[in-house]
Fold these 2 entries.
Entry 1:
Amino acid sequence: MHRPMPPAVGLDEPHSTLGLKELLRGLPSDRRHSVLDLGPASSGNVQFFSSHSCRLYIADLFHTMRQRGGPPPEQAIPFGREIEATLPAGSFDLILCWDLLNYLSRDQMQILGRHLASRSHPGSRLFALIAPHGEIPERPQRFEILSPDSVRYSSRSTAHRPAPGYREPELNRWMAPFAVESSFLLRHGIQEYILVHKPAAAS
Amino acid sequence: MTDAQTATIGASTFVKGRIEGTDDLVIRGRVEGTVKLPENRVLVAPGSRVKADITARSIQVEGRVEGRLTGGSDVTVRSGGQVQGDILAPRVTLDNGARFSGNVDMEQLPSKSRPAKA
């Protein structure tokens, strides 16, 4: 059955979120946290993380890579170079992937996982939205945090493509050393995942 | 920002170096270097290209900027505006359709860089 992903063409809708609150829970309050946002910039996210005393770096990965020379190539090596050139240095406590993983192949996801691992530390958490079935907009959407319970999805894409439908075992395998810590299936069909950077096993 | 207290860098003008002063500034052309107007407003107009660190009381970007933006009061990136660099200001607004990559820091700036308002 072909079920379309709810945030369809040109919509600008708030949706509930369960993962966001969970993502923030457990962050120690004794220091500022650094957040890497791989999605497009939005005022709401800046305000939200500022109010939580976080330092925010916005990478807008998909669009920045497109601007640097077209859509992300399927070949692993150019993609890795582009990722390296686009991501900032530093070690981040939270990484917001939003719906980016829906637009990556298995190889690309593995490369991204490795590059994010080098910019995080054991215990760092990653937030991703996966469409388990149906269709997704042609390009990643823009997500704006309205409150800890609500996020606005907006898309300028008029075209759609099939969702790759990634599942938890695939995320664990391809995004290593990140592993799924918790997931939430939302009413509108999107699965929110929180992955945590696991420490390397002692040899 | 079109009164007598506003300086304008025209669309066909290229400025390389350090810009300082006490007027508001509208940039319509190209600027490379440093812009330091801590008491004033700077507008980076549509079509302009700026490769400079900008310090001003208020900065509004509608063109393209590569550099660090320090706003004593606020920094706004309008739809169609593009910023690659860091933003430091107590109030930051990124309109839908604005493109930005870099650090955002909304910590209060040191009082020296924040102008007294009449």
Entry 2:
Amino acid sequence: MAQTPNRLAPFYENLAFERESNRMIINFGPQHPSAHGQLNLVLELEGEEIVRSVPNIGFLHRGMEKMAENMIYNEFLPTTDRMDYIAATSNNHAFALAVEKLIGVEAPRRAQAIRVVLLELNRMASHLFFLATHALDVGAMSMMLYPFREREYILDLMEEYCGARLTHSAIRIGGVPLDFTPEWIKMCEEFLDHMPEQIEMYDKLLKENRIWCMRLEEVGNISPELADSWALSGPMLRGSGIKWDIRKEEPYEIYDEIDFDIPVAETTDCYGRYRLHIEEMWQSIRIIRQALEIYRDTPPELMAHAPEFISAPKEQMMTQNYSLMQHFVLVTQGMRPPKGEVYVATESPKGELGFFIASDGGPYPYRVKVRAPSFYHCGILEDLLLGVQLADVVTIIGSTNIVFGEIDR
Amino acid sequence: MFRPYQPKDDVQKKPYYTDRFLVVPELPKEPITEERLAADVAELEKSIGIKESYMMAGRAVVIIQPQENKAALALLRSRGFGQLMELSAIDYLAQSGEFEIFYELLSIERRQRIRVKCRIQEKESIESVSDLWRAANWQEREMYDMFGIIANNHPNLKRILMPDDWHDYPLRKTYPLEGDEFAQWYEVDKIYGKEFRDVIGPENRDPARIDRYDTKRFARLGHEVQYGAEPKEEPTPIQYQDQRRPVLNDDLDPAKSKVLDKRK
């Protein structure tokens, strides 16, 4: 097993046999199509059974926390798009919410309603992506096409709203930059009317599909104790039968005014987590409908009024000298939040996305720590894959719904 | 000749202008009034002793001695804080020669959160809590990777995000944003050897750089030429270069393609 690599005999890590114990070590990834990004999983096999699994991460590490310390708060916001790039708005929102907590500002009501609509659209996009890639990994090839078609609809909606399809930056610190147009709302409602039929079609394709059930049921069981120990969150935690959703328990924005349920899966397996994602899409539709209802009778302000931290609206800036001066200072020097530390957790599509910000009163954050849910959902592969058959590895990785932009940051 | 000395205590970006009379406001520290959290803090105070406790921005914060971290966290865990959501450090080496380590705990049954903090000297290490929570395994590895803080009795304390042979700890304030010399030549040194630094040259990090007369990389959009040929001013027409006309592309004429007005 032990190799001493040198230039003449490089390190062959792809395959290693140890004849005495008949154990095989294989590398899963980082170029494996089902590794969901750059995951290198070193698996030790006893026959077809996995006896040790070591996830190696860091192939996509861009040092975002270091970058954050060298940027003003507003500059860092577009960078957060690149973490969970499947649902970029939820990252923007988590960061903006943390900074808002630090500076003691609350977004206006209309901005909150818009945020909730965008967040839930992103949640649906992320869950659709999960469904498509998970099904493709497991072998339901045609299933991949249908969720991607509906995800395209959501990307079009995002493009119509903010101009970007993938890296939205659709949320600002203190509010949102743009209002919905009547046409956008009409498009969004059309989408919401179109969606139930599609979700029912996914159910017809997968819910009682014999192969799908055989591949997913009783695979990748996570006990509640293990879920707690690995600090799981989101669908992974609810998939272990623990009812915990930050939108309900520590409500932010207007989630406390919205009526929705938290689906929980008691089966703790991959099938339960798949069902959870479907159920959450139904809940997202409910939430968006209610949020659009709330949006209709809100005053038109989009950005909070906090001249010390947030630029004035454009009209004011172009007509009033002091607003323009303040805007100039905020853009060139950046806002200076008070000294202190905040940790704000939000429910992103993957789980608890939290930003810890330590400020020393300067325009650059002193320390930003991103609590990415996928980091823990990847870490649990160390324990979850033990005793599993090699063929189930892809199913389990797919069901954790990890995104490497977020794990490596 | 000696290189001019530059202090490396904190090479992070600094604000270029700060008002001389600026008084930095602070988030207020309030006493912990919530009953169950106050009971936790009283219990901690009784059994192991704490340095300070307060509420900041709605979060209970307890500051403890670094030697007591495991006992304190085990106590909180037994009182319902079942999840360790986050664990990391803050570099205060330039100010006081210390790291601040924070633990964010969550109790699902009590629906509460608490933050435990402690400070250690640069050369000190801290006791690992990875046998209380499995999540701490990776969190402490990341803390070690980024700050070089050693967690004693950790089962597998090695780098997690950076390569194993990386030099220095990237999130320390003394580490420059664009990387030190080792970082800048990492791939060249590793793949070719140090003697090839001059041959290969430094990495170009300007994402907006376009070499207008680069004929090797086809960088002049619309004026592409063959590899190594002289650059030319007349535009290269966009058409299928392959005269054999592959079957699949046979019918594709961009001028005739139709764009739907409305989504189906």
